[in-house]
Amino acid sequence: MEKYDSIQPIRWSRKGLLLLDQRRLPAHRVELCCRSASEVADAIRDMVVRGAPAIGIAAAYGVALAVRSRYQENPESWREAIAADLDILTTSRPTAVNLFWALKRMAALMVPDGEDPVPRFESEAIAIHDEDIAANHRMGELGAALISEPSGILTHCNAGALATGGYGTALGVIRSAFAAGKLRQVYADETRPWLQGARLTAWELEKDGIPAQLIADGAAAYLMQRGMIRWVVVGSDRIAANGDVANKIGTYGLAVNARHHGVGFMVVAPTSTLDMSIASGLDIPIEERSSEEVLNFQGISIAPQGGTAWNPVFDVTPAALVDVLVTERGVVKQPNREKLIALMAKG
Ligand code: MRU
Prior knowledge:
binds 5-S-methyl-1-O-phosphono-5-thio-D-ribulose, 11 helices, Rossmann fold, 16 strands
């Protein structure tokens, strides 16, 4: 295993799909075994596995599990039976387009050819997983090449190994920049309310010996004002055809602040995150999760009894605030519709 590749959030085994339970990190490192598509859908909904590419990969394996059991039940009618499994996976979370991308790719294998379908579905899920890791390494190189000197970098949420097949998108760039001697210090937003930054990003960086400090989300603008960072580097859950970027709530505020302070804003995402069917970010469905996530912390109420909360978990950063988009197919400066069409045409 290569350096910086030790975290494996998703593992395919004979028993089923093994997911590192991200709700329990960093205190506990336990794997949960999903044996059916509906268990995978629950794991996605409940954030056992999270992060756009990781959600897509898990869903692909969920389809492989469904094919395995439906074909065993009835080799004649497995194709009809699987529709219910696909529905359950489709409705697990709404924002990350990688989920729908992976399900579409798996559904394309549904052709009747008289052969046992199980091996081809398993191989396709494994290919989706392997391709994601390779894309992350490529984006790591491309993104690190844009950083010209040892710099301070701010990241938000967790776009690391845990959010992907491995290595990470934004954290992939950070890992590659560190390896190239271009990183002075990472600042990780704690990322209220689910604390992906505190619980997951800080854990990943600490494990890899990358210098990192956690900051409260509200400290980010002050950090920029004091000239402590050159780049904000984030991942994405869905990028519209015009380059608008949906990502973890708080990303938009960082982009506005970055532009105000002359700090670069870099989005790192594989092309499986691009949704060319959606004209602009206005059309991206934004998930709203339970208000309990805001009102409580680890089961303890942190707000007045009877208090209410609104919990949108993603926001949309307009393309005009994005300095550069890094994908495995190449780098797009000041992304817009024409440039993204050209990128996708590269194949
Ligand atoms: O709610 P989450 O934890 O699934 O949100 C994850 C993010 O917003 C990530 O930044 C995004 O999925 C990119 S992950 C490479």
